[in-house]
Structure prediction request, 447 residues.
Amino acid sequence: MKVSLLFLAVGFVLLLLQTTLPRIVPMGPFVPDLALVLCVYLGLNHPTIGAVVGTFLLGYSVDVFSSNILGLNAFALSLVFITAYLSSRAIWVHSPLLSASVVFLASWVKGGSLMLLWATFLTMDRYGLGSVKYILVDALLAAVLAPALFALLKRGQNYLERVKMPEEIK
Amino acid sequence: MLSFLRRNQVLFSAFLSVLLSLYIIAPAAKGQHRADPIGPLLIAVMRPLQSGIQASFLGIRGFFMNYAALRGVANENERLKARVRELEGEKSRLLEEEATNKRLRELMEFRSEWAPKSMTASVIANSASTYFHTLIIDKGKKDGVEKGMAVISALGVVGQVVSTSSRNAKVLLVTDAHSGVDAMGQRTRARGIVSGSLESGTVMKYVKRSEDVKEGDRLVTSGLDGVFPKGLMIGTVSKVNKKNLGLFQYIEVSLAVDPGRVEEVLVVRGPAPEIKD
Prediction:
């Protein structure tokens, strides 16, 4: 329960940062995808139904602040969660380099799924090879941030898992 | 069966959330929008926090920038240094206020000149994603903001309102790949649609190859989309390419306004007026 609350709070803070950082530190059209890093972390280290709901809500919240079509980011981040969850059965992410690599790949999953949705529901003419540049830079940004964020989340999770609830002590 | 479901409950619930997302997206394919019960609430909760973070950061940045500029006075005594630091804080606050006042004054002059019905709004949040270019402004339904209204600044086109809540509105920027502004060249009146693109920034589409468009040409709104007033500055042509096969030429646009950095905007109410040259 405590861990779930931690992730809920972290999700809220990351969303807050994601919506205000571009105004404070302009990086052109690129926005560091902190929500994606959290979703990958949840898929790898805390795969519960609560995490699935959290991922969906986080994606929906990103849609509220950015997309003119609701559900696009909710869809993409849910797919990212599934990818991270399935890969957690095969790999153990224990090093910063590995966490950055997984987030880098997850960002491609997200970018690819958004392009697929746009092509399906909207029009195709706007998305050609040039769009790959966006996915690449977005993926690199997220990958650079991933090790630090993973370390912080792991530390918080470990701390809370060590602290027992009163009923657990009994 | 039950134990299989229980073993894979995370996977099943994740697939369910994917399906739920598709259910939410589906109306967009028909050009409709599903009602959003959570969005306005979330924006209302986040708004004061976003404004707080932004204001604190600008204050800190102003302090350090002024401090850096005044490092040359290192030989001054401690009392003066302390006084300078004190004044730096005050100065950064005043500079920020002066800059805001200047922007607002320009906006007001522009507004009273041609769009008295428009209202000013402040930008409170940016898009949370690389793939979408939107802004959240601090005016909503209660202030008379409605979906489809044009959002402009004294320098030119910013975007269009795509959704509103009671106190906020979401603006789709002209740089977004899903936006479109009916535009024309000021020199030759060549018409096209200015839109964002993930390929190469902002472009002007559907301009016939026979049209005379050159680099440096000023682009203004045509007023034919019924959203933006006629004659409003959009930007200048930065690149023209007629080499590709096809009916249209490829035109890249350098916008007059950087919509991602604009802080105050005008929301145009009522029918779009015409700008006088």
The radius of gyration of chain B is 24 Å.
